[in-house]
Amino acid sequence: MTLKLYAHPFSSYCQKVLIALYENQTPFEFRQIAHDNPQLMAELTALWPFRKFPVLVDAGRTVVEATVIIEYLGLYHPGPVSLLPADPRAALEVRSMDRFFDNYVSTPQQKVVADSLRAEHERDPRGVADARAMLDTAYAWLDKTMAGREWAAGERFSLADCAAAPFLFYADWTHRIDPSFGNVLGYRRRLLARPSFARAVDEARPYRPLFPLGAPDRD
Ligand SMILES: N[C@@H](CCC(=O)N[C@@H](CS)C(=O)NCC(=O)O)C(=O)O
């Protein structure tokens, strides 16, 4: 039975999983999230009442959380590109970098964007300032960490790079990466050149007008 992915092409967490699927050319049915499609939204709500996406369905089994979905694909639908090293110690470094990108790049980036969608009287300036400060700290830490590394956990493209690609992509749109962080910017460029991510970026182009802070004319 075909894998079903409930996702949207413009969503960063969905792109994280799409990269893994594209790396291995894994076939799947794209169930595209559309808030004006009540049937689809009811399906999503029944699968995962938090209505967060991506959600993967494999022969009646529901798998949630982008990281877990990617690990699940590696276990149940493996392809030629392994995104988690077999050596548990090397895998720990990959997971550690994956957590960094989720918690210290994506979370503050989403905070800034979500706040911009709120009505003026519901905004949280202190929370946004903290989120921007966290992004600055993350860029500085990553710049040091990436010195001499091609990919997030070293020489091989991994789960951590699936996270880094969309999160650094949108983080730079949201809170510009300072030009002094050459290692981060070079890494972001390598990610954009990776065919799996380039495909996800291209598929999301039509939705750029939806970016609430205004999509820059680049990338
Ligand atoms: N922790 C989740 C986060 C998923 C997430 O935040 N997805 C966003 C799209 S990028 C979403 O569902 N937004 C809709 C909402 O929050 O209602 C994961 O790792 O998959």
From TrEMBL:
Occurrences of domain GST N-terminal (ranges): 1-81
Keywords: Transferase
Keyword Transferase carried by entry: yes
InterPro entries: Glutathione-S-Trfase_C-like, Glutathione-S-Trfase_C_sf, Glutathione_S-Trfase, Glutathione_S-Trfase_N, Thioredoxin-like_sf
Domain GST C-terminal: 87-210
Domain of life: Bacteria
The UniProt record lists the keyword Transferase: yes
GO terms of molecular function: transferase activity
Alphabetical list of CDD domains matching this protein: GST_N_family (cd00570)
A Pfam cross-reference name: GST_N_3
Protein name according to UniProt: Glutathione S-transferase
